[in-house]
Amino acid sequence: MAGIIGLYGYDPVWKMARFIYYGLMALQHRGQESCGISVYDGERILCDGRAGMVDQAFGEAELEALRGWIGIGQVDPEPPKGRIVSKPFFAKCPIGVSLVCDGSAAGAVEAARERGFAAEDPQGALAALLSKELADGDPFGAVERITGRLGGACNFIALTERGEMIAYRGELGIKPMVVGNFGFDYGAIASESCALDVIGAELKADLSPGEVYLFTPWSIERRRIGEADPKYCAFEYVYLARPDSIINGKSVYEVRRRIGERLALESDVRDADSVLAVPETAIPFALSFANFTKKPIEMGFVQTGRRVRSAIRPTQFERLVGVQLKLNPIRAAMAGRRVILVDDSVVRGTTTKNTVKIMRNRMGAKEVHVRIGSPRIISQCPFGMEVPDKDELIAAHLNEEEVGKVVEADTFHWLSLEGLVEAIGLPRESLCLGCFTGEYPGRGDRN
Ligand code: SF4
Asked: Separation of 357 CA from ligand 1 center, angstroms?
């Protein structure tokens, strides 16, 4: 998973790097390990990629050096293999192209090798292929020729040295992608609508699966290529996307509220004293759980420092450090009480177990009933979302009761799959539910 954004200014006075910077900050939850920006200044494409969070990586001097009125940017959960940072890829064979992407573009490596490019990284391979295909002058045809091998789950935004910006959403529509504008001043494409909000742009629509947008100095054109076969990622609604985003026409916040209600319907605890949320994804779940069951909701935890997504930290040590940093419990909210703890997901179970232990042993909670706003995660994601090996997924091996014992909860419940589909409000056949079912759409690998 990554977060991407592209802004097309209709006047050279725009300094797009600054707007890309703010947009990337709004997409930071989609990747925190590295980030990069490319701009076009009318003559050249300038690229800069750096390790770390956006506001640590880019300062005044770096943004000032990136002068240009068209720009693209990316945040990544980890840099591509063999690289320290995920600088937006640049290729010139023969048309200069810089490209950012979200999703699995693995098929591009083989396609590029067949064309004689020594490509190692999927994103680099995609940039090289696009650069070559653009030479015939038809950007739509170029995108159509290169995307046939991508498996339908890759979105990208490319910037060319001819002054074009090309955005494509894979035909499965797994990853979200929206288009917007700021009047007649600039056009915008982003992974999520929250990135448009922070830069003052207006959300216009989702890109349809398989749709291409082409921005040039003279026009904006769009065209559907390939057969649209929507399989929107259900996990975006549970965990990945920001609650202030609207994706595939659905408010993420409203979906999360419905998840909370559904969770309460499926498994309330009649005698509990209060409801607590594990910040911050689970807050909307817990709010509507509490409203629905007419129980008080309490602030149970304070986050320390930056937001750390501990579930996707690569090592056990980092996960442990992550959870201590992330959540400091408030004793007064739980001591001597029977509490319902609402969280967004359980992957390995380590974080939940630590949290329950601290609540009970150190904070004096009388009972801890765990309710999870995601169905059981039993399988990996072949579409670019980092999910640990199946061996490490607690739900792949234990039933609800057994997991409850492992995490030392008084009772434990995961949202049902039907509950999630209902809460999202889109037809089941238009959703990818792969990590909850092990069955994947399109050409996703099974595991
Ligand atoms: S497998 Fe899971 S995380 Fe991956 S796209 Fe499907 S629902 Fe989303």
From this structure: 30
